[in-house]
Amino acid sequence: MDINQLYQKIRTSAGISTDTRTLRPGMVFFALKGDTFDANEFVQQAIDAGAALVVTQNPAFIDNPACFYTTDSLNTLQEAAVIRRNLLKAVVIGITGTNGKTTTKELIREALSTAGTVYSTQGNLNNHIGVPLTLLSIKDDANFAIVEMGANHPGEIEFLCNIARPDFGIITNIGRAHLDGFGSFEGVVKTKSELYKYIKEHNGKIFANEDDLFLISLSEGYDRILFGTKSLVATTVSDGNPHLRCHWSWNNKKYFTETKLTGYYNLPNLLAAVSIGLYFGADPELLSKKLSEYTPSNMRSQWVETDRNHLILDAYNANPSSMAVALNNFAQLRTEKKLPILGDMLELGSYSNTEHRAILELLTELRFTSAILIGPCFSKFRNEFPAFLFFNDAAEARTALTKNVTSKFTILLKGSRGIGVDALKDIF
């Protein structure tokens, strides 16, 4: 069996699995090897579970008819994805950026669903494994495919572009994240820009936010479609409602989109979806309706009302850029009792102390009289900021906060996933 025959086997299977715990009969199982795991140790379990085929680099199964032997299972997965991409007739839109990738992807999916059949990255499967899985999941009836691409090291976006081969591209923004992996902010810029470079080299088009001067400068000279508050004559409604609401215009007609997203920082994400939807022929009325109906999930800009408090659950991840934006937005909310609960921002390397101190200084500048900081990086500065409460970890914070339950507060929960700030939501 060669790679093309393997591809055909995948297309007629019940899907792809990379985890024997979720493997269903009839699926093709890819035994991948990572830094801390090796699924090649579970080949027999996959066969016993009814896998249609097992792709493995375990030499013990080199002659097993239930297996496709390869020297590199991951590379084989990526090769199969390239075959799938080459056969797709759908328009492929690549999306990357420091913040807002997943929210923007989901909004674009909603907008384009009024113009055709859309497939997109599920969750945040946006890396060297997730992108191939996304491509291989796209069916023949696709009109559009939205492929999210993430990175935390130089060269990774270029690598993913060569698999996904996007026709169109959008960078949501570029900020200070994964500095440990990128080495510097300049490393972030160079890596994210690899999407623009790929699009230009392959005669594609870029969607660029005209309100982001950095992205406008970065995309100068590229074949681009601008979107933003000027192009769509967009204005937001600010009357104390925590949700983003926006007036925008198209062909001299005004539209109003009332979203379930919190934060003005989501406006570029919303306008990107509006612009891309309109570019591909979506009906403005239907598009606006779909965007209004979209409900964020998975701890991204979620507004949660409990019996005692209002929560802004934005704890999927955090970096200096997204943390600062979230705090500035939180400070503008028209509510008296506000409490930011922030967890450490991880993967900052040598920049960690500087960036965590900057967030604490921002809390002071924004005149927050109380705040809760969780994690060893923030806790280093407890003596310098005595007005705030510091805890070494989420478990310590839970113990203390359970004894002093708040009521009638609006609470922002934000931090890197590894800190576990999101696990505190049930005590409020």
Summarize model confidence as the mean pLDDT. 94
Radius of gyration: 23 Å
Distance between the termini: 57 Å
Largest sheet: spatial strand order:
6-7-5-8-9-10
The CATH topology of the largest domain corresponds to: UDP-N-acetylmuramoyl-L-alanine:D-glutamate ligase
Largest sheet: 6 strands, parallel
Quaternary organisation: single chain
- Which ranges are low-confidence, i.e. pLDDT below 50, for 5 or more consecutive residues? none
Quantity of strands, as a count:
19
Features:
single chain, 19 strands, alpha/beta, 16 helices, Protein-Tyrosine Phosphatase, Chain A, 428 residues, Udp-n-acetylmuramoylalanyl-d-glutamate--2,6- Diaminopimelate Ligase, Chain: A, domain 1, 6-stranded mixed beta sheet, 20% strand, 3 domains
Brief overview:
With 428 residues, the chain is an alpha/beta fold. It has 16 helices and 19 strands.
Task: Write a structural description.
It is a single chain. The protein is α/β, with parallel strands linked by helices. It has three domains: 3-72, Udp-n-acetylmuramoylalanyl-d-glutamate--2,6- Diaminopimelate Ligase, Chain: A, domain 1, CATH 3.40.1390.10; 88-293, Mur-like, catalytic domain (UDP-N-acetylmuramoyl-L-alanine:D-glutamate ligase), CATH 3.40.1190; 302-427, Mur ligase, C-terminal domain (Protein-Tyrosine Phosphatase, Chain A). It is built from 16 helices and 19 strands. The protein has helices spanning 3-11, 43-48, 73-87, 101-112, 130-137, 156-164, 179-182, 185-192, 194-201, 213-218, 267-279, 284-293, 320-332, 352-365, 376-379, 394-403; strands spanning 16-17, 28-30, 53-56, 67-69, 91-96, 118-120, 144-148, 168-171, 205-209, 224-227, 235-236, 243-250, 253-262, 302-305, 310-313, 338-343, 372-374, 389-391, 410-414. Strands 6-7-5-8-9-10 form a six-stranded parallel beta sheet, with helices on both faces. Strands 14-15-19-16-17-18 form a six-stranded mixed beta sheet. The protein has a four-stranded parallel beta sheet with strand order 1-2-3-4. Strand 11 and strand 12 form a beta hairpin. Helix 6 (156-164) runs parallel beside helix 9 (194-201). The protein is globular. It starts with a helix and ends in a 14-residue tail after the last strand. The mean pLDDT is 94.
